[in-house]
Amino acid sequence: MQQSTIDTVYPPTGTLVGGEWRKARSGATFPVHDPATGEVIATVADADPEDAADAMDAAAAAFPRWSATPPKQRAALLHNAFLALQERAEEFARLITLEMGKPLAESRAEVAYAADFLRWYAEEAVRITGTFRTAPDGTARHLTLRQPVGPCLLVTPWNFPLAMITRKVAPALAAGCTVILKPAEETPLSALQFAHILTDVGVPAGVVNVLNTSRPGPLVETILRDGRIRKLSFTGSTEVGRKLLEQAAPGVLRTSMELGGNAPFIVFDDADVDAAVEGAVAAKLRNGGQSCVAANRFVVADPVASRFVDGLAERLRGQVVGPGTDPRSTLGPMINEKQRNRAVGLVDDAVSHGAVPAVHYRTAGRGDAFLNPVLLDRVPSSARIAREEIFGPVATVYRFSTEQEGLALANATESGLVGYVYTRDLNRALRAVEAMECGMVGVNRGYVSDASAPFGGVKQSGLGREGSEVGIQEYLETKYASIDAGALA
Ligand code: SIN
């Protein structure tokens, strides 16, 4: 394997099946690229449906024992994984930057975020409860218990190569489920390194299986068709999510779907505009805009719109675009040239429909995946960018005059993941929280992600929640026993 330009400890590169690191059955591998340079930084085992069948056998075989493992033991393993990840935080941050491109400071924040899910679900593992009640007519006692759903397939994205994994693996393991993890093909290395931590701390063979593949379709389909899989958890685009929902339907699988967003960011006329600009930078540029919670549409009241646009333009022009490994960089490359060109296409389409560029793109002159930030004002609703998730460092502004108009603009999308609102009026903030059609709202802040909070969307942004005490419920089924009370009389 090629040595990187930064000091990175490389993970194993095989598949993890039944506790063994193996080559793919076919012997195939695929390359992993550094988005900043396009260079190949590693090759990893390219799993196919045969490997998927092996992983399914392993996850099914490990389930009875793992689900019966005392919660305190499951909690201890997760806690030890949390400690190990914290200890090796810098190594993971470098690996994330190397394969995904974000600046090191952001990768460090991702590792802390990822570790938080391990800590949180180590604590939740011992708090799985049930109920016991007397039936209203007195004839029975009702006992309810929560049991793990069974082996789960976890499909994770490239934008947070570690945190989106711990957000699924930790609650699944805490609940007593076994898993097959299918990370994004762009970023397999963080996943493999994390799996290594899990085996190191003693997670038993078969409880966590990892398959990387360059052809996810057939592999995922094989697992979803296997009668032993009981749950699919997916984070990714709405388009792929719809297909997976179809594939999950014949087996009537439990699903958690964390899909695309088109987040509105409302700035009312009474807002602290400077604070709104700060929040806008955070909500737009975290992860280079490559996040489902990135603000897509800045919906700004007429009286403050010019001040907001000027302030945001200044902040966007001040970004230092460069490789994530360079400590001066505040904005890294996008994941690849294809994504960059897609964002550029959306900008060109908006400008051709009449949007006014306040900051126009320039080629960063560094490599094919780099894009300098863009700000478009007075974007017409006819532009594609008004409807599509941007997933890049492009900000769009839509102006409004009344509160109702602002809220209607914010809700004019089929997505409903997150919204942001800036106002000094508490009543208006609460009206907006209630009126906004989304699963999460940031009030006077451009950041909502937290392991202790229920993350998820409404409308076409998904099903279910991750994080908090709610997240573990996605991996548990309710069983109820009705106990005849006759003998008690
Ligand atoms: C995502 O973009 O998929 C998740 C972002 C987050 O958890 O903050």
UniProtKB/TrEMBL annotation:
Oxidoreductase found in the keyword field: yes
Annotated active site: E258
Keyword set, alphabetical order: Oxidoreductase
MF annotations from Gene Ontology: succinate-semialdehyde dehydrogenase (NAD+) activity
Domain Aldehyde dehydrogenase: 21-480
A Pfam family recorded for this sequence: Aldedh
Keyword Oxidoreductase on entry: yes
Signal peptide extent: none
Biological processes per GO annotation: gamma-aminobutyric acid catabolic process
InterPro entries cross-referenced by the UniProt entry: Ald_DH/histidinol_DH (IPR016161), Ald_DH_C (IPR016163), Ald_DH_CS_CYS (IPR016160), Ald_DH_CS_GLU (IPR029510), Ald_DH_N (IPR016162), Aldehyde_DH_dom (IPR015590), Aldehyde_DH_Superfamily (IPR050740)
Domain of life: Bacteria
CDD domains (alphabetical): ALDH_F5_SSADH_GabD (cd07103)
Family indicated by similarity: Belongs to the aldehyde dehydrogenase family.
Official protein name in the record: NAD-dependent succinate-semialdehyde dehydrogenase
Organism: Actinomadura syzygii
